[in-house]
């Protein structure tokens, strides 16, 4: 990467290879506005764009990312090129430096208005493991699994930004061996380490979005924790799928990494056999070499590799619209739990503890199956960037509060 007048340390989180977008406020100015993370700083993008008279200033002088998302790929590329120029060309320093805030001192908010929220199920390892745990008497993969990316509609209104506490959900569960359900706080509260995608450019009803149009529609990528109550889920999900077991909260990381930052992380997805139907075939690789890490109370418990996901986000987008369903700016869709083939690569505690039968032993000697009140989960990720640089996705965190 070119040098910056900001003197960024080579190993800084959010160097010039990343330049993610978020929404921040400060104690001095509680109005929310778009920020760009760069090293230990946050750039007030709207104020900076006005100071340099950038052509896209109206799209970014906004309380959140909604107008930038709607502006489309040419504007997204223009903003990113401008940011790189501002931070590398010393001629911009006088106009840009006054709009930098200390990243450690800002408050971060949900970066855009979430329109719809869909969650997929695209890790073969995860689907295989969950099938064996939930349905031991059946084939782990359902007959449709390798023909289409399975998904369900989640609850957009309960998508929350990283750092938001999660109240333990209450509801119906059926204890093992019983006929009737009981009511109370969930006893099998779990996470799902996932990657989220946000749609910028909408599409009209009745039209399909081809796999190869992915980058025209999708603005960027972030981390997502699909908190899941396994006891509520197991009792309610037949035959219509997850409902209250997953709708109480979904946490997202505050920094949206633009697709353009992930060019060097693009890889071929795993071979698909059988070959999918033509509408699910694309001409460009959209596997992504994102390396996730899951921490429970500071202990790293898993390292899920995203590169092995069976279905790509480009295929998921094509599938989501193949019936003519429209896309709206702010639509979020998530990859599904990211699990690799190895035990220490599993993206949820259901798998890590094999349905609660094999507790994890943490560094302090305590054991965990599912989450306890007070537990904090943090998911982080990085990806390879250009010229040996590292792209940072930052983190999504959440702490469990007791049921109410
Ligand atoms: O197989 C099942 O019955 C349930 C699967 C999940 O809970 C996973 C889900 O939300 C989709 C995913 O994250 O991969
Ligand atoms: Ca999920
Ligand atoms: Mg959820």
From TrEMBL:
Residues 118-384 form the Fumarylacetoacetase-like C-terminal domain. GO terms for biological process: homogentisate catabolic process; L-phenylalanine catabolic process; L-tyrosine catabolic process. Pathway: Amino-acid degradation; L-phenylalanine degradation; acetoacetate and fumarate from L-phenylalanine: step 6/6. Keywords: Calcium, Hydrolase, Magnesium, Metal-binding, Phenylalanine catabolism, Tyrosine catabolism. Mg(2+) binds at residues 226, 246, 250. Residues 18-111 form the Fumarylacetoacetase N-terminal domain. This is fumarylacetoacetase. It comes from Nocardiopsis algeriensis.
């Amino acid at each position: 990467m070119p040098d910056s007048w900001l003197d960024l340390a080579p190993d800084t989180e959010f160097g010039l290879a990343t330049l993610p977008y978020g929404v921040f406020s400060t104690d001095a100015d509680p109005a929310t506005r778009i920020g760009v993370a760069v090293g230990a700083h946050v750039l007030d993008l709207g104020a900076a764009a006005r100071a340099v008279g950038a052509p896209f200033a109206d799209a970014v002088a906004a309380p959140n990312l909604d107008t930038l998302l709607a502006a489309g790929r040419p504007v997204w590329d223009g903003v990113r090129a401008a940011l790189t120029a501002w931070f590398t060309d010393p001629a911009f320093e006088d106009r840009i430096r006054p709009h930098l805030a200390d990243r450690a001192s800002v408050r971060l908010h949900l970066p855009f208005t979430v329109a719809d929220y869909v969650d997929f199920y695209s890790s073969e390892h995860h689907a295989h493991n969950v099938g064996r745990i939930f349905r031991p008497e059946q084939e782990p993969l359902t007959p449709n699994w390798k023909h289409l990316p399975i998904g369900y509609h989640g609850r957009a209104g309960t998508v929350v930004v990283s750092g938001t506490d999660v109240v333990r959900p209450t509801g119906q569960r059926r204890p093992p061996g019983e006929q009737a359900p009981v009511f109370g706080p969930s006893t099998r509260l779990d996470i799902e380490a996932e990657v989220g995608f946000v749609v910028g450019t909408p599409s009209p009803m009745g039209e399909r979005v081809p796999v190869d149009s992915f980058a025209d529609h999708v603005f960027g990528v972030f981390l997502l924790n699909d908190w899941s109550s396994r006891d509520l889920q197991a009792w309610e999900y037949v035959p219509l799928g997850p409902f209250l077991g997953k709708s109480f909260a979904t946490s997202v990381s505050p920094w949206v990494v633009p697709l353009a930052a992930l060019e060097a992380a693009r890889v071929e997805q795993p071979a698909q056999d059988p070959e999918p139907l033509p509408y699910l075939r694309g001409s460009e690789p959209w596997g992504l070499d994102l390396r996730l890490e899951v921490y429970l109370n500071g202990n790293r418990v898993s390292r899920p590799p995203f590169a092995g996901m069976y279905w790509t986000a480009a295929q998921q987008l094509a599938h989501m619209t193949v019936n003519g369903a429209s896309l709206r700016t702010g639509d979020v869709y998530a990859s599904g739990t990211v699990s690799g083939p190895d035990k220490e690569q599993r993206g949820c505690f259901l798998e890590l503890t094999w349905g609660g039968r094999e507790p994890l032993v943490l560094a302090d000697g305590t054991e965990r199956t599912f989450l306890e009140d007070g537990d904090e989960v943090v998911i982080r990720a990085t990806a390879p960037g250009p010229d040996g640089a590292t792209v940072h996705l930052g983190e999504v965190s959440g702490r469990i509060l007791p049921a109410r």
